[in-house]
C-alpha cells in the first residue's frame, strides 16, 4: 500500500478571524502553524497569506516571503505549496449582468502568480473551476489556466490542480497534453462546496473514472465532511488534506485549537485504517519533486 | 415499465446551416420538422428559432409565434417546449478579464423569457449551468434562474431544468424548494459537452444519486454520443431526446435528412430494448401537465 | 445521522486457539469477552460456542446455556445473537463427487436451531450462502433457510441474514415476502471471504442497490479488511461488526488482546468520522426488537 | 472502437421443446441454426447437443461429432464453442442432505470433457459457479475446474470462463495464474439467472472492477434481459451473446423463429449504437485463437 501524503491547508482566504480564535493570520502565526502541522505528520503545507492588521486575504509578496523564510528557518524538509487562488471572482450587476459589480477581482494570469515566480516553492495550486459561488461567478477559463501553468512551470514549480467538477478534470487532461508537466499529474478533488462535487462516493468514482493513469490524487472535504473524506480518500487509494482553510472543528461543536490538532486526528484515522503517513521525502519521491 | 417520452430538439442555436442542408431555419421549416418528429413518435418538441435570412439564432417573438401557430394548425396534441437559452454568455477581455468582450450577450432574467410569457407553451427549458465554454463563460447564477423560473411559473409554464454538472442539480433542488413548482420535477442531463458531464454511466449514476425522488429525467448526449445515450437512458429508466440541435448524423458519416429520421431511429432503439414510446397524452400524465 | 450499532463476533468457529492466545473458548471466557465488548460499546454480541477441552466448534446447547446465563448474570441490557452456522458443509469425494467425503456436516434445518429454540435469544443469524469454500461447498438452499427462519420466528427470535453475494440478497427478499418477518429486515454483508463479496465499494454498492428499503444493514470485513470496512460501512450509512471471529489483529502484526480492544478501536473510528454509537436500547428501537 | 464479437448460444440444455417449436434438437437442426446465426453475423456458436428422440440434454460424443461435421461441411470460418456444463448438479435429500437425491448428476472432471478432447473445437466453456439453483446446488469447486481447464488446454482448446458472481471471477484469476492460459483471458458474465448476477449496471461494474486487464469479456442476460444486456454490454465496451439457450422471444410475446432472427436483432442494436460486428477472423485476432 502506498503511503499517504497529508497536506495541511493552514488558513485559506474564506475562513474569517471571527469564526475561530485559532486562525493563523500573521506570517509568524502562519509559519508556526505550518511547523505544527509538519510535526504532526504533514508532508505539504498549502499557504495563503493575510493582512496582519485585518486578517483579510492578501496577495502581498512580502507576506509570502516572510512566511516562507520563517518556515525555512526551522526546516527545509517540509514541502511548500502556495495558492494562486485570488483574482477569479466576477459579480454580475443586477441591471446589466455584463458589467462587473463591486467585489469583482478578476485578474489576468500574470498578475496571479508573482509570489510564486518570486519565491519558487516546490508546488503551487491552480484552480481549474468555472462555477457559480452563490450569485458570484468563479472564472478560470482554459486560456487563463494554461498561461498560469506555463509561467509557474517555467520556474520549476509543480502545479497541483484543484478540481471541483468533472469538467475541471477534462481541462486538467488537456493541460497535461499541452504543457510538458513533469510526471506525475498532481490533482485535488475539492468536495462539499456548494455547486462543486458533492462529498459522496459516486462523485469520487466519477472523478476517478476520468483521471489519467498514474496521477497522484487527493480528495478532501470541507466543513463536517473533512474527516469523513480523509477516510474515504484513503479507502480508495488517495491522499489527504485537512486544515483550518477547510474546516474549523475537531469534532462537532469543538473548535480545533490550530492546525496541529487537525493533522493529528487525520493521521490517527489513516493509521486506524491500516495506512502509513508519507514523510516529506517520501512525498517528494511519489510526486516527482526535486532531484 | 414506464413508457418513454421522446423529445425532439429540432434546431438549437449552435448547429450552423453550413454543417447540414437539413437544418430547419424558417418558422415554416421548423414547424414542419416538429410535425415530422411528432409523426415518428416525439411527444415533445424543443424549439429555438432562427433568423430566416441568415440562419443565425434569434429571440424574435414573431418567429416563435409563427412557428407555434404553424404547429398548432396541424395538431394540438404535441407538447411544445421553448428554449430560454440565449443571453447567458460572457467573454472576458484578455487585458482586463472583468470587462466584457465582444460576443458577450448576458441579459437580465426578464429579457430572456418574453416569448415564453407571450406564447405560454406547456414547457420551457431553464439552463442551470455556470461553466466554461471554450474561453467563454456560460453564466446562470441562482438569482437569475430563480427569477426566470418565477416568471414562467406565474403564467403556468412548466420548466424543464437543463443540467450540466452535479452542481446544477444542487441548484435544481434549491429551486424546487423555493418555488412552488407543480410536481414532478422535470430535468434533463446534458452529456458529452466539453466541461459538462461526460457521456458515461458514472456521470449518470452521480446525477441519479442526487435526483429528488419522483423526478422525471431525460439523459441525452451530443454528437456521436446521441444514440448511445438514448439506449443508456432507457436502460436506467430515463426518458430520451434526439434532434439536429444535438447531433447531425444518423450513423457515422451519414447526415440525417431532417429530425424525422433521428426520431425514427431513437424509437427503434427504445423498442429493441423492450420499451414503449409515450404518446403526448401519456407524457402529459407523467409530467403533470394540463388539467 | 442514525447512530451506529456495533456487533461484536467474539469467537466464531474458524479461528483456532493456536492462532491467538486471546481467543475465548470456555463459556466463562466467552461470556467475559461479551461483557468486555459491551463495556466498550457493543450493543449486540454474536456468539458461537466451543468445546472447552479442545477449543473445537460445538453446537452443545449446554455450552450455549451456560454462556447466556453468565452474561445475563451481569446484564440484561446487551442484545444476544446466537449463530446457526454449523451444519452446512459438503465435501464432494474425488472419485465420485456425488458422495459426501469425510468432513461433510450437512444437517436438516431442524437440527441446526435447537439451541435457539431452547434459549430464545433476541437475534440469531441465518446464513444464506451457497458457495465454494476452497474445495468444500457451503450449502444453504432456500428450502433449508426458509424452514430455519420459520422455526426461529415462531419462538420470537429475529433473524439476522448473513449475505455473501448478490444472490443471497435475492433469497433474502424472497424470504421476507414468504414469511411474516417483523420489520425491519436485518442483514449483514460479509466481505473479504474468498469467493464471497470482495471488500470494495463496488461490491457494497451492488449490495445496496438490491436492498429492500428500510432494511438495517451491517457491512463487515474479515482479516485486514475489518477496520477499513468499519469506516466504509459508516461512510455509506451502515452499521458495523468487529471481533475475533473476523480478525485477530488490532493493527498489522499486533494481536488484539481480546474482543474489548477490537471494539474500542471500532468505536474510535466511528467517532472520528462524526458518528455516534447506539446503546443496546437504541439498537432495539432501530431493529424493532422487544415490545 | 473495438468490433463486437457476437456469440450465438443455439440450444442450451434448459430450454424445453414444449416451450418453442423453433428449438433446434437434432444435430442437423443445431448445425443449421449455427449456420443461420453465422449468416446473421455470429462469429462464435456455443453448442450443446440433445437426444434427437426426446430433445433431452445429451453428452453423447456422437451427437457433438455429427453437429460439428455438418457445420464444417458448410464453413470452417465460424468459431465453434462446445459446452462442458452437464455434470454439476447436486440435489440434497430432504431427510439427510448429505446424501444425493435423484437428479444429482455430479461427475468427476475427466468425464465432463470427452467430447472436447475428441473434437478439439477452438473454444469450450468452463462454468465456474457454485450456487443454489432453486433447491438444487450447482457445484464447480476449484479442484474440478482446474482439472477440466488443464485437460482442454492440453489439447489446445481455449476455455471461455462462465461467471455468475464476483466469487467466480476470483476463481478465474486464480486459474489464470495456475495454468498457462494463452492470452487474453476470455470470460462471460451470465446475468439475470436467479441467485446469479442481477442484470444491472451495478453488477456489471463490480464484475469489471475485478477483471484482469486485457481480458475479453461478454455480458449477456437471460429471458427478457437478453436484448437490454446486448446494449449495456456494448455501451461499456463488452462483447455480446444471444440465442435460444438464453431467451425464446424476439420481442414481448413474439417467439423468435430460430436463432437467426435473434442474431439479426442483436446486430441491429450494435449498429444502432455505432458499433461494428467482428467477423470470425477478427474475433480470432481479438481472442488470440489460431496461429
In short:
The structure is a homotetramer of 291-residue chains. The first copy, chain A, is of the alpha/beta class and 291 residues long. Helices cover 35% and strands 19% of the residues of chain A.
Query: Which stretches of chain A are low in confidence, meaning pLDDT under 50 for 5 or more residues running?
Result: none
Number of domains of chain A: 1
CATH architecture label name of chain A: Alpha-Beta Barrel
Q: Strand sequence of the main sheet of chain A, in spatial order? A: 12-11-10-7-5-2-1-13
Largest interface: C-D, 45 and 46 residues
What is the oligomer described by this structure?
homotetramer
CATH superfamily of chain A: Aldolase class I
Name the average pLDDT of chain A: 96
Cofactor (chains A, B, C, D): Zn(2+)
Protein name (chains A, B, C, D): 3-keto-5-aminohexanoate cleavage protein
Keywords (chains A, B, C, D): Metal-binding, Transferase, Zinc
GO molecular function (chains A, B, C, D): 3-keto-5-aminohexanoate cleavage activity; metal ion binding
Amino acid at each position: 500500500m502506498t503511503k499517504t501524503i497529508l497536506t495541511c491547508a493552514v488558513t485559506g482566504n474564506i475562513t474569517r478571524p471571527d469564526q475561530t480564535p485559532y486562525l493563523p493570520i500573521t506570517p509568524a502565526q502562519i509559519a508556526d502553524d505550518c511547523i505544527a502541522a509538519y510535526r504532526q505528520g504533514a508532508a505539504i503545507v498549502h499557504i495563503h497569506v493575510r493582512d496582519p492588521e485585518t486578517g483579510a486575504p492578501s496577495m502581498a509578496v512580502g507576506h509570502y516571503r516572510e512566511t516562507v523564510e520563517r518556515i525555512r528557518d526551522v526546516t527545509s524538509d517540509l514541502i511548500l505549496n502556495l495558492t494562486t487562488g485570488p483574482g477569479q471572482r466576477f459579480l454580475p450587476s443586477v441591471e446589466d449582468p455584463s458589467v462587473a459589480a463591486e467585489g469583482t477581482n478578476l485578474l489576468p494570469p500574470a498578475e496571479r502568480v508573482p509570489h510564486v515566480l518570486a519565491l519558487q516553492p516546490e508546488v503551487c495550486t491552480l484552480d481549474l473551476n468555472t462555477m457559480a459561488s452563490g450569485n458570484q461567478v468563479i472564472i478560470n477559463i482554459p486560456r487563463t489556466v494554461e498561461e498560469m501553468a506555463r509561467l509557474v512551470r517555467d520556474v520549476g514549480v509543480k502545479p497541483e490542480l484543484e478540481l471541483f467538477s468533472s469538467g475541471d478534470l477534462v481541462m486538467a487532461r488537456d493541460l497535461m497534453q499541452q504543457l510538458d508537466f513533469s510526471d506525475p499529474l498532481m490533482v485535488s478533488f475539492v468536495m462539499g462546496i456548494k455547486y462543486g462535487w458533492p462529498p459522496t462516493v459516486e462523485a469520487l468514482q466519477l472523478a476517478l473514472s476520468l483521471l489519467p493513469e498514474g496521477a497522484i490524487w487527493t480528495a478532501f472535504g470541507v466543513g463536517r465532511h473533512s474527516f469523513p473524506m480523509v477516510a474515504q480518500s484513503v479507502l480508495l487509494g488517495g491522499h489527504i488534506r485537512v486544515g483550518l482553510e477547510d474546516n474549523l472543528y475537531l469534532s462537532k461543536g469543538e473548535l480545533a485549537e490550530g492546525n496541529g490538532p487537525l493533522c493529528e486526528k487525520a493521521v490517527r484515522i489513516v493509521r486506524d485504517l491500516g495506512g502509513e503517513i508519507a514523510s516529506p521525502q517520501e512525498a517528494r519521491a511519489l510526486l516527482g519533486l526535486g532531484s
